[in-house]
Design a protein that fits this description.
- With 274 residues, the chain is an alpha/beta fold.
- 44% of the residues lie in helices and 26% in strands.
- The chain has one domain: Vaccinia Virus protein VP39 (Rossmann fold, 3-Layer(aba) Sandwich).
- Strands 1, 2, 3, 4, 5, 6, 7 and 8 form an 8-stranded mixed β-sheet that branches.
Length: 274
């Protein structure tokens, strides 16, 4: 299979403005840290760890690189059953929480670093074939063939990637239509699709499982305006900020925005040698 078309299209969709990405994830750090104790999220984490154990991917002697680690949600779970974890993230605010969560948990086998995966040189850290598992769960850091192959180069054997297959978010869909003129009643996401086809062209045959998820999140109007504005920052539409603010004000109740999302997530696991 010729993967050139997938490489080209994926490269075109790559987010190049990392400073905007950092702002967006800094803004959401409080929210992500708060949901660490969410019962459904705990079940989701346990299911994922159990899946990796069942596939003999991780054990007490394993080392893990957690790309886009955020507040340490998965790193803290890996710490319970593996030898050592390095978590990296672009957001300094996320990592402030991650380091505090380490202290609270008293694990001493995790290290966090603020690094953008897209800019990281593996040789600078001596990370080539360094980790038993290179793990990238729901992170936009894996957004090109280069980012994907870097995962493989950092791994001794296994890589895991997860992402949306589709995501139906009415607020964001409505804003896309107002700002970009696009009907997005169900937004399909392509990262997993591109990655799968590129891996297949390399002779690697990933295993995929799917999970259906739903959630409801409440934002303050102020934070929602800031968050959605950052998401459309690259739109090149002159008055997009006014459109975002006006729409969110029109649907707010008592200064709050309620976001309801249903989505399908793919878990993709592969052995770099198969």
């Amino acid at each position: 299979m010729d993967s050139t078309i997938f490489e080209k299209v994926w490269g075109e969709s790559e987010r190049k403005n990392l400073s905007l990405s950092k702002q967006f994830w800094d803004l959401r750090a409080d929210e992500f840290n708060e949901i660490l104790s969410n019962k459904d999220k705990k079940t989701e984490k346990a299911d994922l760890i159990e899946f990796l154990i069942s596939k003999n991917v991780i054990n007490k002697d394993s080392t893990v690189l957690d790309i886009g680690c955020g507040v340490g949600k998965h790193s803290l779970e890996f710490a319970k059953i593996t030898k050592g974890i390095v978590g990296i993230d672009i957001s300094s605010k996320m990592l402030e929480y991650a380091n505090q969560n380490i202290k609270n948990s008293r694990f001493d086998n995790i290290k966090f670093k603020r690094i953008a995966w897209q800019n990281l040189n593996l040789d600078d850290y001596n990370w080539k074939e360094k980790f038993d598992l290179v793990f990238a769960a729901m992170t936009p850091a894996i957004n090109s063939k280069n980012a994907l192959t870097k995962m493989i180069e950092a791994s001794k054997k296994y890589c895991f990637m997860s992402g949306f297959v589709y995501r139906n978010d009415k607020i964001k869909n409505d804003l896309r239509e107002k700002i970009l003129g696009k009907d997005c009643s169900k937004k399909f996401e392509n990262n997993i699709y591109y990655a799968f086809n590129i891996l297949w062209s390399m002779g690697i045959h990933p295993e995929i499982q799917y999970r259906n998820v739903k959630w409801i999140k409440e934002w303050s109007l102020e934070k929602a305006v800031e968050g959605y504005t950052l998401q459309f920052q690259d739109s090149q539409i002159e008055n997009f900020k006014d459109i975002v603010k006006s729409h969110l004000e029109s649907i707010s109740e008592n200064g709050k925005i309620k976001e309801s999302v249903d989505a399908k997530i793919a878990w993709m696991l592969w052995n770099k040698d198969k």
